[in-house]
Amino acid sequence: MSLFQSSQTKNENNLNSSAHQDTVSDESVDQQSKKELNEKSIVLSTDDLSRRFANETKPVFSNVEFEVHDGECVAILGLSGAGKTTLFNVLAGLDQPDTGQIQLEKQLGYMFQKDLLMPWKRVIDNVSLPLVLKGVNKKTAHKEAKQHFPAFGLSGLEQRYPNEISGGERRRASLLRTYLTGSEILLLDEPFTGVDAVTRVDLQEWLRNLVNTKNLTLVLITHDLDEAIRLADRIYVLQIGTPSQLSESIEVNSASKKTIFTRLMDLLYKKID
């Protein structure tokens, strides 16, 4: 046997051993993640959800079933046309499913793609609106809302109008308004649409820290694969079809980012007949 052949065999053995160790490591992480997840209570679950529009012969999606555990961040990833917004509306209670049911164990608050801040009201008035609608007097509502401004990156912006702050700041204000509804589950539809790439990454990191700090549960509807991987503990894919269907969840920490990315790409572009 030549020196080259011996060296090649040795390298192949090392590669095989390394690959085996990576697989074992991934499996160990996956098992640990599942064990930790199972110990947390389920705060949102769906059973056999479907939604069909009038004059349409087939539903937009069918048999949508998933669950979210307390303190977990779950992303529902899908391409344009998969039915993400329709599913968001059903989960938010803005639309009714044709079949199935939704079980909630905690209050759910939702945020649309557009921030919907009222342009004639100052930031402090916009974000404290949920408190005022609950009957809290304006002065007390402002005081309570202002306590959260530093955590939401809004310090010093209380008296500004929406057109006087940046797109990223508007998203933060909109999220604070949702948070002040008293909801422990946040349902967000493409929360960072319309902001530049650098600001988007900053907001994603900030949101993940906020969820952990405030012990919130997050359900994220998005088309952005990188955003889903960066924010979520688990990812479901709403696969385009007639009707669209939801995949099994993928644990983000169960394998390398490259492996997760490949799995998600395969699911995203696999059309369901």
Could you characterize the architecture of this molecule?
The protein has helices spanning 3-38, 84-92, 123-127, 129-133, 138-146, 167-179, 197-214, 225-231, 257-268; strands spanning 42-51, 61-64, 67-69, 73-77, 99-104, 108-111, 185-189, 217-222, 234-239, 245-246, 250-251. By secondary structure, it is α/β, with parallel strands linked by helices. Strands 4, 6, 7, 8, 9, 10 and 11 form a seven-stranded mixed β-sheet that branches. The longest helix has 36 residues, at 3-38. The radius of gyration is 22 Å and the shape is globular. 34% of the residues are buried.
Structural class: alpha/beta
As a whole number of angstroms, the C-alpha radius of gyration is 22 Å
Domains (count): 1
Helical coverage, percent range: 40-55%
**Number of separate strands:** 11
Cα separation of the termini: 54 Å
How would the blueprint of this fold be written?
Elements: H1 3-38, E1 42-51, E2 61-64, E3 67-69, E4 73-77, H2 84-92, E5 99-104, E6 108-111, H3 123-127, H4 129-133, H5 138-146, H6 167-179, E7 185-189, H7 197-214, E8 217-222, H8 225-231, E9 234-239, E10 245-246, E11 250-251, H9 257-268
Parallel strand pairs: 4-8, 4-9, 6-7, 7-8
Antiparallel strand pairs: 1-2, 1-3, 1-5, 9-10, 9-11
How would you summarize this macromolecular structure in one to three sentences?
With 273 residues, the protein is of the alpha/beta class. The chain has helices at residues 3-38, 84-92, 123-127, 129-133, 138-146, 167-179, 197-214, 225-231, 257-268, and strands at residues 42-51, 61-64, 67-69, 73-77, 99-104, 108-111, 185-189, 217-222, 234-239, 245-246, 250-251. The protein has a single domain, classed as Rossmann fold, CATH 3.40.50.300.
